[in-house]
Amino acid sequence: ISLVNNVLKYGLNELKLCFRTRLSNYLYNSYLSGFTYYKMSNLDSRISNADQLLTQDVEKFCDSIVDLYSNISKPILDIFIYVTKLTQQIGAQGPGVMILYLLISGTFLTHLRRPLSRLTVTEQKLEGEYRYVNSRLITNSEEIAFYQGNKMEKRNISSVFEKLVTHLRRYIDFRFNMGFIDNIIAKC
Protein backbone atom coordinates (compact mmCIF):
# COMPACT_ATOMS: atom_id res chain seq x y z
CA ILE A 1 0.00 0.00 0.00
CA SER A 2 2.83 2.42 0.80
CA LEU A 3 4.33 1.77 -2.64
CA VAL A 4 0.99 2.45 -4.34
CA ASN A 5 0.50 5.68 -2.36
CA ASN A 6 4.00 6.90 -3.21
CA VAL A 7 3.57 6.02 -6.88
CA LEU A 8 0.30 7.99 -6.90
CA LYS A 9 1.97 10.99 -5.23
CA TYR A 10 4.88 10.78 -7.66
CA GLY A 11 2.49 10.64 -10.62
CA LEU A 12 0.49 13.63 -9.37
CA ASN A 13 3.65 15.67 -8.76
CA GLU A 14 4.92 14.79 -12.23
CA LEU A 15 1.55 15.76 -13.71
CA LYS A 16 1.69 19.12 -11.87
CA LEU A 17 5.18 19.77 -13.19
CA CYS A 18 4.30 18.82 -16.78
CA PHE A 19 1.17 20.96 -16.69
CA ARG A 20 3.08 23.92 -15.22
CA THR A 21 5.83 23.55 -17.82
CA ARG A 22 3.42 23.54 -20.75
CA LEU A 23 1.30 26.39 -19.37
CA SER A 24 4.36 28.51 -18.53
CA ASN A 25 5.82 27.95 -22.00
CA TYR A 26 2.54 28.97 -23.61
CA LEU A 27 2.15 32.07 -21.43
CA TYR A 28 5.74 33.22 -21.91
CA ASN A 29 5.48 32.70 -25.67
CA SER A 30 2.44 34.99 -25.66
CA TYR A 31 3.92 37.44 -23.13
CA LEU A 32 7.23 37.82 -24.95
CA SER A 33 5.83 37.99 -28.49
CA GLY A 34 5.97 41.45 -29.97
CA PHE A 35 5.81 44.09 -27.26
CA THR A 36 3.18 42.47 -25.06
CA TYR A 37 5.35 42.68 -21.95
CA TYR A 38 5.94 46.40 -22.57
CA LYS A 39 2.28 47.13 -23.24
CA MET A 40 1.19 45.28 -20.11
CA SER A 41 3.61 47.02 -17.79
CA ASN A 42 3.50 50.53 -19.28
CA LEU A 43 0.34 51.05 -21.32
CA ASP A 44 -2.33 48.82 -19.80
CA SER A 45 -3.25 49.25 -16.13
CA ARG A 46 -5.66 46.29 -15.98
CA ILE A 47 -2.86 43.87 -15.05
CA SER A 48 -0.61 45.37 -12.44
CA ASN A 49 1.34 42.31 -11.36
CA ALA A 50 2.24 40.20 -14.39
CA ASP A 51 5.29 38.74 -12.63
CA GLN A 52 3.10 37.23 -9.92
CA LEU A 53 0.59 35.94 -12.47
CA LEU A 54 3.32 34.24 -14.49
CA THR A 55 5.03 32.64 -11.49
CA GLN A 56 3.05 32.07 -8.31
CA ASP A 57 -0.43 32.10 -9.80
CA VAL A 58 0.51 29.64 -12.54
CA GLU A 59 1.96 27.31 -9.91
CA LYS A 60 -1.16 27.57 -7.73
CA PHE A 61 -3.43 27.09 -10.74
CA CYS A 62 -1.59 23.95 -11.84
CA ASP A 63 -1.60 22.57 -8.30
CA SER A 64 -5.34 23.24 -8.01
CA ILE A 65 -6.19 21.62 -11.35
CA VAL A 66 -4.19 18.47 -10.60
CA ASP A 67 -5.62 18.29 -7.07
CA LEU A 68 -9.10 18.66 -8.55
CA TYR A 69 -8.38 15.82 -10.97
CA SER A 70 -7.08 13.67 -8.12
CA ASN A 71 -10.02 14.51 -5.86
CA ILE A 72 -12.51 13.61 -8.57
CA SER A 73 -10.94 10.55 -10.20
CA LYS A 74 -9.97 8.60 -7.06
CA PRO A 75 -13.43 8.74 -5.42
CA ILE A 76 -15.08 7.76 -8.72
CA LEU A 77 -12.77 4.76 -8.98
CA ASP A 78 -13.44 3.84 -5.33
CA ILE A 79 -17.20 4.08 -5.88
CA PHE A 80 -16.99 1.92 -8.98
CA ILE A 81 -15.00 -0.77 -7.14
CA TYR A 82 -17.31 -0.75 -4.09
CA VAL A 83 -20.46 -0.84 -6.21
CA THR A 84 -19.13 -3.76 -8.23
CA LYS A 85 -18.24 -5.73 -5.09
CA LEU A 86 -21.53 -4.90 -3.33
CA THR A 87 -23.58 -5.84 -6.38
CA GLN A 88 -21.83 -9.20 -6.50
CA GLN A 89 -22.51 -9.79 -2.80
CA ILE A 90 -26.02 -8.42 -2.13
CA GLY A 91 -27.56 -7.52 -5.48
CA ALA A 92 -28.21 -4.23 -7.22
CA GLN A 93 -30.79 -2.67 -4.84
CA GLY A 94 -28.37 -1.73 -2.01
CA PRO A 95 -25.78 -0.08 -4.24
CA GLY A 96 -28.56 1.59 -6.24
CA VAL A 97 -29.92 3.33 -3.14
CA MET A 98 -26.40 4.33 -2.11
CA ILE A 99 -25.65 5.78 -5.55
CA LEU A 100 -28.92 7.70 -5.51
CA TYR A 101 -28.04 9.16 -2.08
CA LEU A 102 -24.55 10.08 -3.31
CA LEU A 103 -25.95 11.79 -6.41
CA ILE A 104 -28.52 13.79 -4.44
CA SER A 105 -26.11 14.80 -1.67
CA GLY A 106 -23.36 15.57 -4.20
CA THR A 107 -25.69 17.81 -6.20
CA PHE A 108 -26.78 19.58 -3.01
CA LEU A 109 -23.20 20.12 -1.82
CA THR A 110 -22.10 21.30 -5.27
CA HIS A 111 -24.86 23.89 -5.20
CA LEU A 112 -23.77 25.08 -1.74
CA ARG A 113 -20.10 25.29 -2.79
CA ARG A 114 -20.70 27.62 -5.73
CA PRO A 115 -19.39 30.73 -3.94
CA LEU A 116 -16.07 28.95 -3.30
CA SER A 117 -14.67 29.71 -6.76
CA ARG A 118 -15.59 33.39 -6.47
CA LEU A 119 -14.04 33.54 -2.99
CA THR A 120 -10.84 31.90 -4.25
CA VAL A 121 -10.56 34.28 -7.20
CA THR A 122 -11.08 37.25 -4.89
CA GLU A 123 -8.47 35.91 -2.47
CA GLN A 124 -5.89 35.56 -5.23
CA LYS A 125 -6.68 39.05 -6.51
CA LEU A 126 -6.31 40.58 -3.04
CA GLU A 127 -3.11 38.61 -2.34
CA GLY A 128 -1.72 39.90 -5.64
CA GLU A 129 -2.65 43.48 -4.79
CA TYR A 130 -0.99 43.11 -1.40
CA ARG A 131 2.21 41.78 -2.95
CA TYR A 132 2.06 44.54 -5.57
CA VAL A 133 1.84 47.42 -3.06
CA ASN A 134 4.74 45.90 -1.12
CA SER A 135 6.89 45.50 -4.23
CA ARG A 136 5.93 49.02 -5.34
CA LEU A 137 7.24 50.32 -2.00
CA ILE A 138 10.55 48.55 -2.57
CA THR A 139 10.79 49.69 -6.19
CA ASN A 140 9.99 53.32 -5.42
CA SER A 141 11.62 53.54 -1.99
CA GLU A 142 13.99 56.33 -3.00
CA GLU A 143 11.21 58.58 -4.31
CA ILE A 144 8.97 57.77 -1.34
CA ALA A 145 11.75 58.68 1.08
CA PHE A 146 12.61 61.86 -0.82
CA TYR A 147 9.01 63.08 -0.83
CA GLN A 148 8.38 61.76 2.71
CA GLY A 149 5.55 59.57 1.49
CA ASN A 150 6.05 56.82 4.05
CA LYS A 151 2.82 57.65 5.92
CA MET A 152 0.81 57.56 2.70
CA GLU A 153 2.41 54.26 1.69
CA LYS A 154 1.72 52.83 5.15
CA ARG A 155 -1.96 53.80 4.78
CA ASN A 156 -2.08 52.22 1.32
CA ILE A 157 -0.47 48.98 2.49
CA SER A 158 -2.63 48.86 5.62
CA SER A 159 -5.78 49.46 3.58
CA VAL A 160 -4.97 46.69 1.09
CA PHE A 161 -4.01 44.33 3.93
CA GLU A 162 -7.23 45.08 5.81
CA LYS A 163 -9.27 44.21 2.69
CA LEU A 164 -7.34 40.94 2.44
CA VAL A 165 -7.88 40.07 6.13
CA THR A 166 -11.61 40.87 5.92
CA HIS A 167 -11.96 38.63 2.89
CA LEU A 168 -9.93 35.82 4.48
CA ARG A 169 -12.22 35.90 7.52
CA ARG A 170 -15.27 35.51 5.23
CA TYR A 171 -13.49 32.68 3.44
CA ILE A 172 -12.68 30.92 6.73
CA ASP A 173 -16.32 31.26 7.87
CA PHE A 174 -17.56 29.82 4.58
CA ARG A 175 -15.14 26.86 4.80
CA PHE A 176 -16.20 26.22 8.41
CA ASN A 177 -19.88 26.16 7.47
CA MET A 178 -19.23 23.92 4.46
CA GLY A 179 -17.17 21.53 6.58
CA PHE A 180 -19.99 21.35 9.11
CA ILE A 181 -22.59 20.60 6.41
CA ASP A 182 -20.24 18.09 4.73
CA ASN A 183 -19.85 16.20 8.00
CA ILE A 184 -23.60 16.11 8.61
CA ILE A 185 -24.28 14.76 5.13
CA ALA A 186 -21.41 12.27 5.35
CA LYS A 187 -22.75 10.84 8.65
CA CYS A 188 -26.30 10.27 7.34
UniProtKB/TrEMBL annotation:
Cited SUPFAM superfamilies: ABC transporter transmembrane region
Cellular component, GO, one term: peroxisomal membrane
Transmembrane among keywords: yes
Keyword Transmembrane helix: yes
InterPro entries assigned: ABC1_TM_dom (IPR011527), ABC1_TM_sf (IPR036640), ABC_transporter_sub-D (IPR050835)
One GO molecular-function entry: long-chain fatty acid transmembrane transporter activity
PROSITE patterns listed in its UniProt record: ABC_TM1F
Domain ABC transmembrane type-1: 1-188
Swiss-Prot/TrEMBL GO biological process terms: fatty acid beta-oxidation; long-chain fatty acid import into peroxisome; peroxisome organization; very long-chain fatty acid catabolic process
Protein keywords: Membrane, Transmembrane, Transmembrane helix, Transport
PANTHER family tied to this protein: ATP-BINDING CASSETTE SUB-FAMILY D MEMBER 3, ATP-BINDING CASSETTE, SUB-FAMILY D MEMBER
Protein name from the UniProt record: ABC transmembrane type-1 domain-containing protein
Lineage: Eukaryota, Metazoa, Ecdysozoa, Arthropoda, Crustacea
